[in-house]
Write a structure and sequence with these properties.
about 0% strand, ARM_FBXO47, F-box-like_dom_sf, single chain, mainly alpha, FBX47 protein, disordered N terminus, F-box_dom
Length: about 450
């Protein structure tokens, strides 16, 4: 037994030779598998392979990355080389047309680059993908919040945004949270946002502009789907108290100067504004009120609109009314109904009169305002509350007409003769508003 045990535990020289030959054949086998994954490219030296890539479009390189893991790893190495960086990280962000490629925009180039890096890093964890992408893009100054000296005339942040949009398309919500946290920390946005929402409006104008451009270009890229925009806008706003959310919403979507791009804080206070100044804010409110924004309740959005109407001071009522009209029927009715439920009949009546005025000025159908008033009347729990609201409505019409008439008679005129124009619009608004009510009442009586 001892002898057999000894023979089983010892190896003959021939057995050792066979084992060593098996070991020596193992590594070449792996190498041959890696080479076979390269296909016809295995015959090319690495330098020649990279020279070939210079003749391929970014879309073609992106397709090539899907051939095998080996080729993908070679492409990752190529992207990190100086020639790959020069080839792929175009930085002519102040010229929308790519040199030498007629009609090809730099935005399309970064869409293709986003898809390339998405495919090359497909097997990496999210954290490692983000680190790699940051390493590749870190040398592009125009991708940074304070990186460009002329941000209003630069497409850098938009290119970064469309790149990230393609890169993260299809990622689940947890991964997108990680992307946001990564960008938030990378740009030190928390401290910067804290500065602009807690300080006096306009005291950090350049920083306000930078935050606006970064959020709109990188996180809220215009081509995004509504669900994606709702997600990113929620991430931007939710960390802050409601009063700061309203301030930040105004910074990102409020009116800006056509001369220097800075936020115009007094626009809603000094006089009636136009639709273009309010459209961005209205679209953002509709987005948060829609089904895509799951983390927002109707009460949240109503509170946000209320806070927004006093940023930086109380708005003119006409601007409040115009914002509500642009925000759509649902949010408009919910806002008005909340006033009715809370017994704020006088405020509700003033808002309703200004809605009629906006309908007249902006050429909306006046029957919309009448039907909205009819819906709001159904919210009141008693006939007395409804009749009190209607009385407040008529009193508001009369008081505003008298005030405007007094201003005209006192000769308070400017270059545009706005006092007379306001009186003209309000008289027509009242006439058309009551005409629609008469049509509604006579139609009901004739049908009975």
């Amino acid at each position: 037994m001892t002898s057999s045990a000894g023979s089983s535990c010892t190896s003959t020289p021939r057995q050792k030779q066979r084992r060593s030959s098996r070991r020596s054949c193992h590594t070449p086998g792996r190498d041959s598998q890696a080479l076979s994954a390269l296909g016809d490219f295995q015959t090319l030296p690495l330098e020649i392979f990279q020279m070939v890539l210079n003749y391929l479009s970014v879309k073609d390189i992106s397709m090539l990355s899907m051939v095998s893991k080996t080729i993908s790893s070679r492409l990752i190495n190529y992207i990190s080389t100086s020639s790959g960086t020069r080839r792929l990280l175009l930085q002519d962000f102040h010229n929308p047309e790519l040199p030498g490629r007629k009609g090809a925009s730099i935005l399309e180039h970064y869409k293709s680059l986003g898809l390339l890096l998405k495919r090359c890093t497909l097997l990496l964890p999210t954290r490692d993908r983000l680190k790699y992408v940051h390493k590749v893009l870190s040398g592009v100054s125009c991708f940074k919040l304070n990186g460009c000296a002329s941000p209003l005339h630069c497409l850098g942040l938009q290119c970064y945004g469309v790149f990230l949009q393609i890169l993260t398309a299809g990622w689940d919500e947890l991964e997108c949270h990680r992307v946001f946290n990564f960008l938030w920390e990378l740009s030190n946005l928390a401290r910067k946002v804290q500065t602009v929402v807690s300080g006096k409006p306009g005291s950090a104008r350049r920083l306000e502009l930078r935050i606006r451009l970064y959020c709109r270009g990188v996180l809220l890229w215009p081509g995004s789907q509504r669900s994606d925009s709702a997600f990113w806008l929620t991430r931007i706003l939710k960390p802050w108290p409601m009063v700061n959310q309203a301030r930040l919403l105004y910074i990102i979507f409020g009116p800006v100067s056509s001369l220097d791009g800075h936020v115009v804080w007094q626009k809603m206070i000094e006089g009636p504004t136009d639709e273009s100044s309010l459209k961005g804010l209205a679209d953002a409110i509709k987005l948060l009120y829609g089904t895509e924004a799951r983390e927002w309740t109707a009460d949240d959005v109503i509170s946000l609109v209320d806070e927004l109407s006093v940023v930086p001071q109380e708005w003119l009522m006409e601007n409040n009314a115009r914002l509500l009209l642009l925000s759509g029927n649902s949010i408009c009715f919910t806002f008005l109904a909340s006033k009715a439920v809370n017994g704020r009949a006088v405020e509700l009546a003033r808002l309703m009169v200004f809605m009629a005025l906006v309908c007249e000025k902006d050429l909306y159908c006046m029957d919309w305002a009448v039907k909205m008033m009819q819906k709001v009347c159904k919210v009141f729990s008693t006939a007395w509350e409804r009749n009190n609201f209607l009385q407040c409505l008529e009193s508001t019409f009369a008081r505003m007409l008298m005030d405007m008439l007094q201003a005209v008679l006192a000769g308070e005129r400017d270059e545009e003769d706005s006092s007379f124009l306001n009186l003209f619009h309000l008289v027509n608004a009242q006439a058309n508003f009551h005409k629609e009510i008469l049509y509604l009442a006579m139609g009901s009586s004739s049908s009975t």
